[in-house]
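Troubleshooting log. The previous run stalled partway through. Resubmitting the same two chains, unchanged.
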Amino acid sequence: MKPIVVLKRTIFAAALIPAAVLVLDAFQGDLTANPIEYVTHTTGDWAIRFLVITLAVTPIRRITGWNPVIQLRRMLGLFSFFYATLHFLTWFVLDWFFNFRQMVEDIAMRPFITLGMATYLMLLALALTSTQNSIRRLGRKWTLLHRLIYVAAVTALFHFWLARKTIVPQFQVVFVAAVLLLGFRVWWSRRARTQPRPAAPLKPVKM
Amino acid sequence: MPHTITRAAADNLGRSAEAAYNYRMLIRHAPDFRFSDITPKSWYLRRREFLQTAAGAALGAAATAMAPPFTARVNAAPQKEGTGHGAKLPNVVKSPLSTTGEKITSWDDITSYNNFYEYGPYKEDPKENAWRLKPRPWTVTIDGYAEKKGVFSFDEFVKPYTLEERVYRMRCVEAWSMVIPWVGIPLKDIIATYKPTSQAKYVEFITALNPAQMPGQTTRMLPWPYVEGLRIDEAMNPLAILAVGLYGETLPNQDGAPIRLVVPWKYGFKGIKSIVKIRFVDYQPKNTWQVMTPNEYGFYANVNPNVDHPRWSQGTERRIGNFLRIKTLPFNGYADQVASLYSGMDLKRNF
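Second attempt completed without errors. Output:
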């Protein structure tokens, strides 16, 4: 088996651990005194972590030159979407229990909910167009559309920041990581512009 | 629990014993997986030790596998010193000012879900870290515009009064709430002892500053030490107490040992913990959260469903232990006793 396949399967299994532990904790009644808040925070933490990890794939590819690593990108992005979906459903079902009027008010009135909702819709669009078929069909537009991940990363960070009363350590970690990873892209594109040598074309790799 | 027992073994004992107690009627079959098959949660959960032997844990898993999610809680791990059950407090009298007819929140929830940034920013941090605090010997300093001032030992400070049990709702600014059986002393009786002069318009409270015992204070998350304040007439309201106990026992460290403020008509952050200094002053004290984020937290911080926090609604709350949200009441349901303190005030501006 190719190393990338082994790596991909390992990461797939590992990425399910947080969800599994959450289920286990639920059955053990070990979700703290405020289970809904705990599940909301945990799923949100993992959604943004995977978002940041997804952003790391291209820089790793550029720096190491190991092109197959790009094959991890879609899976990691979908894991971010997976945890974001759990996060959204926790809010939708458990937190407000289908109280639509309150949810609409929340989205309209609370900037951090507005940002969270916007982030989720962006991730949804990216997830729906993540298929091989979409890549083929959308062509150049696909690349453009999937730059939305940069916007989603920024709105997700704002959402996280506004949701807490103080700057918690977990926020600091994803914030620093996101700044470095987005900064890398700025630096890379500048470098590509100042040096006439063309950068390696980013063509979709068959997975 | 004997001292010779290891932490891990004790965890098992506590967990399985409690689980067996709660679910002994429900055990029907052994689990079809071994506990050792499950990925250790320490891989991703901060500060949670997970060193259970298969035998003890399997029993716990068997007993809890059928527990419905979100409702059952098995939380009987032995407490680190100072964070578990304390000494029974003698001669506690029940108070007619107690809230009645509401289900009292469990001891486990009250002592494991705390906002006490001196021990870390997460709810589970205080229970984990508060063993470091040494609540004795302890002194309380009385200062400012008062006839009687000085530094008093904790025993000296609380001795003159009868301890009362006060069951109060506690509404956090984060929109969750509990019903807590405090044991405490009416703040007005304490104030009477020290005879504030007519220049005293406000009472300022200050938490201990001791980074060695309160690890959160080594960070700059909040400006330390924590400060809170009340207008003197608020402090004289019969509902305001200084609590020294919980469920008839001495206060666990994570709940603010040895002595803390409880003002049930205000958001929980007004209830300053581990108090070392009380000052009678002529200025409105700058309370910590107001200093931190002045547009979000005010001095008064009265529970008010009609004035939303800028970032979330205050109209409803989740009572810990319940699933559905309930409506939040003005002054947390204590309007009859306290609303007159604020007559004529614009409560939207004075949030």
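Takeaways: The mean pLDDT of chain B is 83. Residues 7-64 of chain B form one domain.
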